[in-house]
């Protein structure tokens, strides 16, 4: 059984969303149209401490869909699935709609 | 339907203003005359924390026209539209008139 | 009509003073004599925050004549005029007399 | 008799877990399937001080199974056994299940 | 008439002291004997702010004779005279006697 | 008579332990078996100040046996003996048993 | 008459001790035996400010014999004598006996 990872500090575990290459009707989508580097938040760390030792919680939460930077992140294989670990401050924002 | 992005921390989502190459009367404008690197603020993040953990709000607001630095910013495609994400402190100022 | 720029944070908008190449009587001035890299303050930002989030006002004010460093500054064209944006802490001092 | 090490500050002493190359039934596991860079926490330091001098405890504890970054860590040989020292903030998270 | 410069922040305006190449009796001084890189303080800035926004005054004052580092400083020509601007913390000390 | 050194700030004076190349019974030890980079604490400094000026004491004390990093440290010859100066935060931990 | 230097901030004026090349009985000392990079404290600055603006006094005092790092320090010639300026935190410790 794949292990479960609880990220440390302000790290966020994300499963990248692979954009569909065809529409639901099976029509091939142009390569560039849907290349949004996004993912779903699987787990978040407890947050990091500011310089006065106060715990600063992570800005995103489990289930959020987030926009990811083009580079960065650490890939982590848990069982057969691939995930990525990002620092909270590197996540560009949350996607809605 | 294109997704809506809420930027994280002190990031600002901007739609660049493409300067008109002709006057309203159709006369070609010299290349250099109107090349102001500016854009419109579409959405702003909640702000970043200072080292004591206090939330420092973003200086610009939705609808502002802002002057952008020549370099930097992350390009983001939402649906068919291209936007750019800048950090609040990298925006040079607001344009008026 | 040229746009008006309100600089952000502790940025200062400056119009460089082009030193006269001739005296009022029309005599050519030696190249080196008057090459003071100075300018007039057109607009100032609201100031930057120190690490505790307090707003630290800009040290110079509109109308001041200031001494500029040899390098640095961002050039900005507003309408037909060229200006430069400097950070408050990069301005070397104010010129009097 | 091998010496016992109490790590200093926020250092963590870890014994790496060598993933099994065969299943319990003796079947050779594909090279990539189980290559999780993980280890068991053997000992933790007292924690590091934040800039105000307060002691910030380490986030992991003895017995935890942790996910390690691909690089970094200091290898330490105590008697015949090899261990690795990591800084608390470099540990990616704790593994469960 | 040469302009007067009030340095900004913790900058210090200094007029370098050119060591005499001959004694008062006209005897040529050996090149190395008097090569003390020193100068006179002409004007000082109001001081810089520490990270809590408090103004930290400059350590030297007008009229002080100071020892200067071998490198650094910004040269400033005011009228026919050459001056140098140093940051307060780069001045090595005050010379007496 | 060799001079006595009181280290400054959070520096620690250490005498490196040269691992025995033979067992007490005179049998040659394999090169790698005992190569623990360790040493004995001879003297410690008063500690360093955190950014608020509070004195943060050194974590190790005279007589401790400590694990040293592979690199770093300043070698100091006092009389005929060689010692090494390390910063407190570079010491990996204390060895016991 | 040579000038007197009062160091600024946490700088320390030191006169290096040139180790004797012969014993008092005139016997040539081996090159390495006495090469302790040390010096006598001639004058100290008032101290530097921590980030809250509090003055942190220098750790050494006039007359102390100190151990100096192999590199660093600014050489200063006052009259015919050569001195060296070090920052307080670069001094390795005080020598006694």
TrEMBL record, chains A, B, C, D, E, F, G:
Does the keyword Chaperone feature in the UniProt annotation? yes
Record keywords, A-Z? Chaperone
Q: Which family does it belong to?
A: Belongs to the GroES chaperonin family.
Q: What name has this protein been given in UniProt?
A: Protein groES
Q: Tell me, in a sentence or two, what this protein's role is.
A: Seems to function only as a co-chaperone, along with cpn60, and in certain cases is essential for the discharge of biologically active proteins from cpn60.
UniProt-listed InterPro entries = Chaperonin_GroES, Chaperonin_GroES_sf, GroES-like_sf
CDD domains attached to this UniProt entry: cpn10
The entry lists its GO molecular-function terms as: ATP binding; metal ion binding; protein folding chaperone; protein-folding chaperone binding; unfolded protein binding
Natural source organism: Cucumis melo var. makuwa
